[in-house]
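Priority: medium. Attachment 1 of 2:
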């Protein structure tokens, strides 16, 4: 177990945006150096498609369907049982969480599992300050280097303060979607790398872990955000850990942070899961991963999806149903006669395995709970459809 554990995560960070995962568009020198001497995890999954849900799974070591929470509404109670931060505190660590000030005020109520002895550092806005968006126009979001330097100074002060603490220290520093002075997802990856470099100046490389809470859709299927999907750009997240000569060739979950930090041995889970909402909410999706296969259930559509993630990395081919509807010819066709796929027999077996697991873990709310949430969702859609343009851009939460 390390004397210092420095965990740096970034909101809405896709793993394929990082050069250590093969990106040629972005380059991160410090991160590449950590990856070269450490372990890069290629099958690391978030348990929750939004920040507070992901944080809940990370802190408690529980999947969300076991948490007892039924709604994502800002009144979430602390989940009883194991808590990563309390475990670290019991092992003698001085435990620290650092968030942007706006996140502390908003999402803490949706998380509420920060531990009994944790010091929370609320940084004074390391997010950008955007003017109101005008419908139909591009925003003027020129980089502001002075603002970025102000944000970096806040990070420097945080790091200096934590580095001065003697003995065992755990720090979880979570960066926002976009860092101060920048404008969009991925526009601040050089700043992210600079912050990693600042951490390396204060702590040894073998004390630093890098990850994310979840990814984002990045334009896939016309979506540019997160929180409502379990596609791999959202669900598969980066993890760079300071372990050498370690091969992890099986799916693991961010519910396993205690194992990832070395508090206990890393175990192979047969299934890993990701959800977008709690069990009584109508717009819930659940994904279950078993080896190379992933089963998805869309509660709103009442539809299943089965993907072979090795054969079909983009998740276009739904192997669950035996036929598909040709929207041009307006007729049904057999799927296996239209698409060559050499593993149909294996896929059918996986479908049975995954469906048995889905039946074991899936649950709904009561009739009245479900009816109430559907009504609230319908009213929300009407409100969103007819409301005026918001005065501020919201950078946090779901």
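Attachment 2 of 2:
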């Amino acid at each position: 177990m390390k004397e210092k554990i420095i965990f740096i995560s970034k909101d809405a960070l896709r793993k394929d945006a990082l050069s250590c995962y093969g990106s040629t568009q972005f380059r991160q020198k410090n991160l590449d150096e950590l990856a070269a001497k450490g372990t890069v995890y290629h099958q690391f999954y978030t348990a929750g498609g939004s920040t507070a849900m992901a944080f809940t799974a990370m802190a408690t070591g529980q999947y969300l369907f076991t948490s007892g929470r039924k709604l994502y509404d800002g009144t979430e109670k602390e989940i009883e049982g194991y808590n990563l931060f309390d475990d670290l505190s019991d092992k003698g660590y001085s435990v620290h969480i650092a968030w942007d000030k706006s996140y502390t005020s908003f999402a803490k109520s949706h998380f509420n599992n920060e531990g009994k002895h944790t010091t929370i550092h609320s940084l004074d806005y390391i997010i950008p300050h955007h003017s109101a968006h005008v419908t139909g126009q591009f925003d003027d979001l020129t980089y502001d280097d002075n603002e970025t330097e102000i944000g970096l100074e806040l990070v420097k002060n945080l790091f200096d303060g934590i580095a001065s603490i003697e003995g065992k220290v755990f720090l979880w520093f979570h960066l926002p979607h976009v860092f101060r002075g920048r404008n969009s997802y991925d526009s601040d990856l050089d700043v992210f790398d600079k912050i990693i470099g600042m951490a390396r100046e204060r702590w040894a490389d073998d004390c630093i872990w890098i990850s994310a809470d979840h990814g984002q859709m990045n334009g896939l299927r016309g979506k540019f955000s997160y929180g409502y999907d379990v596609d791999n750009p959202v669900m598969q997240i980066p993890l760079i850990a300071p372990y050498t000569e370690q091969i992890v060739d099986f799916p693991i979950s961010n519910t396993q942070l205690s194992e990832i930090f070395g508090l206990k041995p890393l175990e192979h889970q047969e299934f890993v899961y990701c959800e977008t909402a709690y069990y009584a909410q109508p717009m819930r999706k659940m994904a279950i991963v078993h080896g190379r296969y992933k089963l998805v259930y869309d509660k709103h559509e009442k539809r299943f999806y089965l993907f072979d993630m090795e054969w079909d990395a983009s998740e276009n081919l739904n192997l669950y149903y035996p036929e598909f509807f040709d929207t041009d010819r307006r007729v049904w066709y057999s799927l296996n006669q239209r698409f060559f796929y050499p593993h149909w027999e294996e896929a059918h077996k996986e479908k049975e395995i995954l469906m048995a697991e889905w039946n074991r873990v899936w649950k709904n709310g009561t009739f009245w709970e479900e009816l109430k949430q559907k009504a609230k969702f319908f009213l929300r859609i009407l409100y969103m459809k007819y409301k005026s343009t918001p005065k501020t851009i919201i950078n946090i939460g779901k």
